[in-house]
Amino acid sequence: MQKPCDDPILILASRSPRRRYLLEQAGLSFSVIPSSFDEESVSLSSPEIYVKILAEKKADEVSEKHSESWVIGADTVVLIDGIILGKPGSRDEARDMLKRLGGRTHQVLTGYCICCKAKKRCFAETIKTDVLFKDLSDEEIEWYIHTREPFDKAGAYAIQGLGTFLVKSINGSYTNVVGLPVCEVIEFLIKEGVLGCGFFFETKIKKRE
Questions:
Q1: What is the pTM of this model?
Q2: All residues at 6 or more sequence positions from 16 whose CB lies less than 8 Å from its CB, including other chains
Q3: Can 38 be counted among the known catalytic residues?
Q4: Exactly one of 38, 75, 92, 130 is catalytic; which is it?
């Protein structure tokens, strides 16, 4: 039965191609409506709380205009020595970040929020993954910077891209490092009845076709 409204059932409130890819790979049907929420308006608190608040604000901003939909908001940061590493703005910043991460374990924190205004439901939490980098030589760092992959990634690397060679091991969710903890997102959507019990069977059939 079609919904008596024009809102999509599921909305990703992010322009991140990585989050979009993860949801597509999971077999979900959704619309992409990026949030225009001003992240600078949120004061920096503990990293765990900070990313969760940002996810809530992004989801809420889109949900205000699409109250019947289930909206997913998310925000990801890289944390080492208590310092949040954002996206490098220059080659020097990327180099400094990679040198700091080399041979050490850092944390990737993703706050995510799923809400539906019409149903008065909103859930948010932060998922943490520990990531251990290999020892990095100056040559390896310079080569990776030359690929330009680091420049739109928090922490100056992409685990799903060329940056996979940097990572020696992880402890926790891989998709969380990419940008969205898919397991937790789908578990919540199933629990709320957004995804029916036939979801996995139908997705398997579609992928095999």
A1: 0.86
A2: 74, 179
A3: no
A4: 75
What are the DSSP calls for 141-176, one per residue?
Answer: HHHHHHTTGGGGSGGG--TTTGGGGGEEEEES-HHH
* CA 101 – CA 80 distance, rounded (Å): 8
pLDDT in tens, 89-116: 999 999 999 999 999 999 999 999 999 9
Domains contained in the chain, CATH given: 10-208 (3.90.950.10)
Return the residue matching tokens 């080569």.
Answer: 143
- List the structure tokens of 28: 């979900």
**60 with 52: CB under 8 angstroms?**
no
CA-closest candidate to residue 147, choices 103, 98, 108, 106? 98
Token pair for residue 188? 């919540």
For residues 39 and 61, the answer to whether their CB atoms sit within 8 Å is no
